[in-house]
Amino acid sequence: MTSPAEQPMVAAAAAAAAAVVAAAGEQAYRAWLAHTATCATCRVSAACPTSVRLGRAWRKARR
Ligand SMILES: [Zn+2]
């Protein structure tokens, strides 16, 4: 049986877990952004395998 006093802790734990996921997503996003800013292929075309890979990693991390 869960006491009412434990509910805020459960909510805080869920928020912390969500923050970890968000941080991972942001890290992946920054990696993708840094790549597109420096990659010659990305500057001239959207068909860059590395960009696709980083984009997939970003979406996966956001889940
Ligand atoms: Zn690229």
Residue share in β-strands = under 5%
What percent of residues adopt helix (DSSP H or I)?
over 70%
Question: Ends: how far apart?
Answer: 31 Å
> What sort of overall outline do the alpha carbons produce when their principal axes are compared?
rod-shaped
**Can you summarize the main beta sheet?**
none
Name the hetero compounds present. Answer: zinc ion
Question: Structural class, from secondary structure content?
Answer: mainly alpha
Describe this structure in words.
By secondary structure, the protein is mainly α. Helix content is 81%, strand content 0%. The chain has three helices and no strands. The protein has helices at residues 7-38, 40-44, 49-62. Residues 35, 39, 41-42, 48, 50-51 line the site of zinc ion (ZN). Zinc ion is lined by residues 35, 39, 41-42, 48, 50-51.
Main attributes of the structure:
63 residues, mainly alpha, binds zinc ion
Give the topology, please.
Elements: H1 7-38, H2 40-44, H3 49-62
Helix pairs in contact: 1-3
Bound molecules: zinc ion.
Task: Summarize the model shown.
The chain is mainly α and 63 residues long. The chain contains three helices and no strands.
